[in-house]
alpha-1,2-Mannosidase
Amino acid sequence: MTKIGMRRIVKWISCLATVYFAYSYMQRHRFTTATDDTGGTEAQYAVEKVFLESWQDYVAHAWGYDVFNAASGQGQNFGEKPLGWMIVDALDTMMLMQAHTKDVRHRLRLRREVARCEAWIRDELDYDMNTEVSVFETTIRMLGGLLSAHHLAETLGVGTPAVYAAKAEELGARLVPAFLASPVGIPYSSVNLRTGEAVKSMGIGEASLAEFTTLQLEFKQLAYVTGNATYWKLAEAVYKPFFRENDYPAAYDGIAPVGVLPDTGKFFTPAFKIGARGDSYYEYLLKQYLQTREPLYWKLYQTTMTGMAKHMIARSVPDDYLYIGERYGTLSGPFMPQMDHLVCFIGGLYAMAATEGVPLAKAEQQPWFDGDRALYWQIAEDVTYTCYRTYHETPTGLAAEISFFSVREDEAHDSWWESPSRNFFIKPTDVQNLQRPETVESIMYMWHLSGDSKYRQWNWEIFEAFRKNTAYYRPDGSLTYTSINSVVAEGQTTPRDNMESFWLAETLKYVYLTFVDDFDLSKVVFNTEAHPLPVLDPEELARRGLVTGWDL
Ligand code: DMJ
């Protein structure tokens, strides 16, 4: 080639590069503020960046492992082989970001990472292992993750649906013995993936309410994808025994204790909580209705909401923050004015119950929008505000694992941290933050359903607090993100040496979706681990023989 020819080629390449960088810069800076009413392009970019930093640090230090000890930069597995805990849980966040990003370089990187995950799932992930796993955690994270990857691969064209469907079917089949072990169909809490041996939880062997009632969205979707109605039937069979054995819901106003004996269905531990061990029982009643439109689940959900208003909801002193407490013994027994961070999903749930996923203004015009729906919306606004305040008022801008609310004007607790507004306290044992998603989840729903820009501002503020306080620089200067020991300690936060998979699967996804315009919440149902599953057509379900086989 002549010198002139060479020069021309170099000129063309540099010309193309300039156009490419100018284009991607313009795309990124189309809107100038992260919380701009018209769009969140800059915020989207910032969240993608933190996601990619977190993810690529995992890839560099612990690729394939189930647990990522982020501060020390090491990986571990739960059993003899990896279950895909980080990879499968994070995958659909990458798929969604790839579909919605406005940044060309991010899109290319995300596409490469999706392909890396898919190849690992296809070639390395092997569920034939002599390892006992939690039925609940494996269902919500792995089965849910595989089924949503299947759904997004089909609808967004990002990946090979058959790879995910095959793995989901294999995993589902290996979880089935947990259901069959119980004489009444309430699954034991763990199962060995190779031998099928099912094991009750330690001690008396009770099943946690939230655990055996948070499998239904995934098993119903699996039945739909595989055409095997057994998955559907097994998942639904869990309800009848505990309803029948305990005169539930009538005798309990719809609020159930958190412990149940799996061989009979009898209630055991008399603790009533919407947080740990109780939370997603309530969530999956509404979400099954949204997934399949079976009226039974709407009826059940409404019963539980009435009971919640009667027995569990309270307001703090001095500013009336609405929160959901705990009861012990009976439903009129001692009330604990404390709320797990886990409860903060409930704002989003109430909002979805009010509008069924369409914007509030549209829902209010529907014949079904009645006084109950209006009340659900009001509770959604109030409890989401409280959860936001548990972030906004701490020195780090991050919420603690549990907040304890004031019931008296002169309330004081030695050695507990007191919020500036005096509405809540944090005990020294509860000051940690595990990068949990529930508050940003509710705020994401409130933004899409109300269009009120304050919700974007709140999630931006929380995201900034995560970015500042959960970022950790190792001694070699490399960056990671990790849970922290205290949200109230002054100065530098200390890391807990763990990046939970729900940081990638849920927290960053929900913050991200807050800044995606026009995300239609009436088309998908997020499982409790933020994996989006499709809303199913009732007529198609009936044609396939997938219908509810029980009633109250
Ligand atoms: C997640 O695994 C799920 O959201 C679950 O339902 C509750 N806890 C964590 C996140 O906090």
